[in-house]
Write a structure and sequence with these properties.
It contains 13 helices and eleven strands. By secondary structure, the protein is α/β, with parallel strands linked by helices.
Length: about 290
């Protein structure tokens, strides 16, 4: 029987699901719009109710116990069902129409694969997405934009709200041809003293841990503010570059011998003036799912 006591645990269950999704209490708190203290209170209440430990703190975040992971999965499935109910009830797919503009720098666009767009347009045939890409990494949002993706935590003004953030683990990559010709770097000193490096201008400000490495490298032979140029340079054997780990599937070789804890974070922001429009909510959910799969 679903008792009043169990109803009181709903906040704890939603919190557990958010922590599982973001792998961090702080990020879960941001996503839920509450404080970390409130997160801890909800979790403690749920643990007391279930009589078991659900979360262990770690130096780089927190770890869910196997039971907590199972519970979080059930909660996520339930949330999806509820979202489907309200979406079907409140939004007529055929009537939901119009343009939705999303801004992002080219460095984001080149890493963002538009999965399932065919299914999206089968469901929402009258929504039209405008993806406005900028060469410069601007951290302000144009007034006519509904959404934006940034590569630094944006300054949130009165007209914007942070919807979602995603950490993208990165690694060092080279082409097979480069490694055949120049050998495999054995350690960080070998990398910095002997190997050619290609670099995305400004990446030391965007990617954690990269500044400490790039400033030691003696042969930074090619730099560009174009992600496409960086990829071409690495693919054509000019040198070793820092890229998201998903490029393991793109014909590059990851330099696994050298520990690299670098990561890039993408931030999805919505314009407060249009955030409650159904078409904006739908496109925002699409990009949330897109970022989640990276």
């Amino acid at each position: 029987m679903f008792t009043k006591k169990k109803v009181l645990n709903i906040n704890g269950l939603l919190t557990l699901s958010a922590i599982n999704k973001h792998q961090s209490k702080r990020k879960a708190a941001v996503a839920m719009g509450i404080s970390v203290d409130t997160i801890n209170r909800y979790v403690a209440g749920l643990e007391a109710s279930l009589g078991t430990k659900l979360i262990h703190n770690a130096h780089n975040g927190c770890i869910l116990t196997p039971r907590a992971q199972s519970i979080a999965k059930v909660v996520e499935d339930a949330q999806s069902l509820l979202e489907a109910i309200y979406t079907d009830n409140d939004v007529s797919h055929e009537m939901c129409e119009g343009y939705v503009k999303i801004m992002m720098p080219l460095s984001v666009s080149s890493n963002l694969f538009p999965y399932d767009l065919d299914d999206f347009y089968a469901t929402y045939p009258n929504i039209k997405i405008i993806s406005h890409c900028q060469l410069i990494r601007d951290y302000t949002m144009e007034d006519d934009a509904d959404l934006a993706i940034f590569v630094r935590r944006p300054e949130l003004f009165d007209n914007t709200t942070l919807l979602f953030e995603k950490d993208i683990p990165c690694g060092l990559f080279a082409s097979p041809g480069y490694l055949n010709k120049h050998g495999y770097p054995q350690n960080i000193n070998d990398l910095c003293s002997r190997h050619r490096i290609v670099n995305l201008i400004g990446s030391e400000d965007m990617v954690t841990g990269w500044r400490e490495i790039i400033y030691q490298c003696q042969h930074v032979c090619f730099q560009s503010n174009s992600t496409f140029s960086l990829l071409r340079a690495v693919r054509n054997g000019i040198g070793i570059g820092l890229m998201p780990l998903r490029f393991k599937d793109e014909g590059f070789i990851c330099i696994d011998k050298i520990p690299c804890s670098s990561q890039l974070t993408f931030y999805l922001v919505v314009n407060n003036k249009t955030q409650n429009l159904s078409k904006v909510k739908i496109v925002a959910d699409y990009y949330k799912n897109l970022l989640s799969r990276m």
